[in-house]
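Appendix B.2, paired examples.
Example (i):
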Amino acid sequence: MTLDATVRLQLGSLDLDVHLTAADGETVAVLGPNGAGKSTFLRAVAGLAPLAGGRILIDRAVVDDPADGRYVVPERRSVGVVFQNYLLFPHLSVLENVAFGLRSRGVPRGEARRRAREWLARMDLARYCDAKPSSLSGGQQQRVALARALVTEPRLLLLDEPLAALDVGTRTELRRELRAELAQFEGARVIVTHELLDAVALADRLVVLERGRVAQQGSVTDVVAQPRSRYVADLVGINLLRGIGRDHEVALESGGTVATADPVAGDVYVAIHPHSVTVHLREPAASARNVWPGRIAGTDLLGDRVRIHVAGEVPLVAEVTAAAVAELGLHEGVGVWTSVKATDLQLYAA
């Protein structure tokens, strides 16, 4: 593994205890809600946040181990960092910004500038060498920050929300460019993001942090298909219930029961896609075995579809057409019934 990091530290109310690895040629995306510890973990690996415990190895060399008193300063670690707000030096030219990492590592100025020019040409930014960062667009500044991180030829590349500061149009274009650059980088890459689309587009593996701990990790396909926390379920747009299964029924933690098509036993998750949830104004007499009363708590418009949040004994999100919303008069406060066929449930061990 290029990176093998166990990071333990406390920062305010954050109690961070995370183990993460990343191999050559692998892109790992770290997701999680605000305050989960994503950026703090990245800063610790870069050497910018002190460990209380744990150990960080890069290419099997220890760069941080408080138990042994070993600590390698950031500029001596084979790490390139792209910060969320890029942190380009406003008083330096674009060329000097890119050359900065090399100069801090002792590379002579002429050589540093030569290598910086090469990377700016590669990023299609050669004509901006003498410009100040403030004259560039957000996308151009992002490419400058990436060039500054890569010019030192690091073994590990860390990116903290690299697309967060961009508008939607630029973000789509830069996502493609970033994916292409990452594919050419031979070392390991760790990206912090809260956007599932960025993670799916860029990463080979997902690590989800919640409250300073790893809540779930695995391939993009596995995490999206079988979320194991409310945060991940909301991220991928799936209803997630949890309970104890017995025979053809799951007794939910939150109350209520779910009927299943196949026998089930033990602690399980029940995943329900919103388009499998049907909304009725009156209790249905249809064949669905799962029928629950509730009240509409809110709606979200998604193109020609509407997501309806139904509060009740079994809270669910349903996805229906805008025409159905208008025809049935579905709006916040209306009492409704929801139904789900037992064959539309996905069940897996908790």
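Example (ii):
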Amino acid sequence: MSSPKEPLSAKLIVGILSGNPDARGSALAVLCEHFGPMDLAIEPAPFGYTTYYNREMGEAIQRQVVSFLDPVRQESLADIKLLTNEIEKRFMSDGKRQVNLDPGILSEERLILATGKNYTHRIYLRNGIYGDLTLIYGKGSYRTLPWTYPDYSDPRLIHFLGVLRQKLVFQRTGKLPRKYSRKGDNP
């Protein structure tokens, strides 16, 4: 019989899509008001994986992924998604979103993104929010799955998430992960 125990805290990441740099910056400031300071971010880059958002946000959409300094409880993902939905609404103009915010929880084992859309590989959390198992960790790196979004398969993002994982381990233990420590530094 397994004995239930609370999972360790995880890094909060948020993927931000926007064709409006001012709206992206303002939304990021609101995220920091709610979740504290950022610790790492990928520079905004053109988002060309789909035209799905073009009608709403224009054709000059950029993607940025940020993480926040303070780890969060894994079970908070549904609440975080509900909050980011409200932030998106705050920045709407003429009934169109100016930002799309995709929060996720990065643990040592996986990346789970929050979504309001059901699908076969998504687990219902609550209040209309599902957890999307997006990446799993193995053999020294986060790995894609058959359903992983193309932008989350980008090697630059995979590297960024690996760095965040190292930081998460360091925040918990005060030690670098074994793979990155000098010989004899970790037991």
